[in-house]
Amino acid sequence: MMSEANAAPEEQSDLGTKTAMAGGILGALAMTSCCILPLVLFSLGATGAWIGQLGALYQYKWIFFAFAGASLAYGFWKVYRPAPQSCADGSCQRPMNQRFMKGALWTATVIVALSLAFPYIAPPLLGY
Fold first, then answer.
1. CA angle, residues 69, 16, 26, in degrees to nearest 5
2. What letter would DSSP give residue 81?
3. Residue 64 burial by CB count (10 A; 0-12/13-18/19+): exposed, middle or buried?
4. Beta strand segments in the chain, E
5. What is the Cα–Cα distance from 114 to 120, expressed in whole angstroms?
């Protein structure tokens, strides 16, 4: 029988990993809000004066990057580090879906990298 003291750290570990993954995804979306998001929204047909206001977030790009980078680093550490499992009594908890977590972290990493590179690769692609 698993005691309450043993179950709490495992649940907290899962919560930390999920929080880091969510922070990384939100950081990646924040990174796109100044440059890529307005272009994508305009391409999808969304118009309005509010889209032009998203460019004002460019000055916060490095703050968003620091938040996204820290969240992604913590998420990768939580997902890829070897986690000890104590199943002495035979009642192991089902581990969270590592494949989904790794996919989400790598997707957020690619989005952050594209957001950082977009100001440098956009002019040749768009013909500026």
1. 40
2. S
3. buried
4. none
5. 10
Between CA 17 and CA 75 the distance in angstroms is 6
Q: Residue 54 is encoded by which pair of tokens?
A: 């998203």
Per the CB < 8 A criterion, the answer to whether 35 and 119 are in contact is: yes
Q: How far is CA 94 from CA 84, 103, 127, in A?
A: 13, 19, 52
Looking at residue 120, its amino acid is Y
pLDDT at 4: 47
Residue pair 25/63 in contact by the 8 Å Cβ criterion: no
Q: Can you tell me which residue has the tokens 């995804």?
A: 25
pLDDT tens figures, 89-106: 666 665 667 788 888 889
Whether 70 shows a pLDDT value over 60: the answer reads: yes
**What gap in Å lies between CA 121 and CA 39, rounded to an integer?**
14
pTM: 0.67
